[in-house]
Amino acid sequence: MPPILTTDRLILRAHTAADFPGCYTLWSDPDVTRFIGGRPSTQEEVWSRILRYVGHWEVLNYGYFLVTERQTGAVVGEFGLADFRRNVVPPFGDTPEAGWVMLPQYHGKGLAREALTAVLTWADQTMPRTVCMIHPDNAPSLKLAAKLGYTEYARGQYGEHTPILLERIVR
Questions:
Q1: Is residue 162 part of a domain?
Q2: CATH number where 87 lies
Q3: Which residue from 134, 103, 143, 123 is spatially nearest to 10, judged by alpha carbons?
Q4: DSSP H or E run through 121
Q5: What is the spatial distance between Cα 67 and Cα 87, in angstroms, rounded to a whole number?
Q6: Closest Cα to residue 17, out of 61, 84, 66, 59?
Q7: Which of 32, 37, 113, 127 has the most C-beta neighbours closer than 10 Å?
Q8: What is the pLDDT of residues 73-90, one digit of tens each?
Q9: Hey, what's the signal peptide range on this chain (predicted)?
Q10: How far apart are the first and last CA of the chain?
């Protein structure tokens, strides 16, 4: 069973079918997808994403968390770890890839750091290294990654994009 993580302001839990409306709101926001694919997701793509998240937990015992506010239950975003088998150069191999997205109205409140800290604290128990890739123009995500111990190890190639590849090693 996927864990349920809690912080002072957030609940992080596995996705369910009932989360589709909130996830669709998240992934159909052009500000959310600006650096991830560059366009809002369709309902079909969001549904496939939720199923992929469920599959991660079933097959790999890690995955993405739906993050909600403790007080209101409102969807804040998604944070987690995955193995998307990306055709990125250099390859990630079997190293879990950290990722996060958050609705714009929650930016600037420290919630992304709070959520990602909870995910990484949980992951540190079994994952000595995680990686992430971030668009070079995504300054807020690069800043968050640095605060949580990610350092650049390469400029990658992913399709037509050249993301910054970062790693975090638990010592």
A1: no
A2: 3.40.630.30
A3: 103
A4: helix 111-123
A5: 28
A6: 66
A7: 32
A8: 999 999 999 999 999 999
A9: none
A10: 27
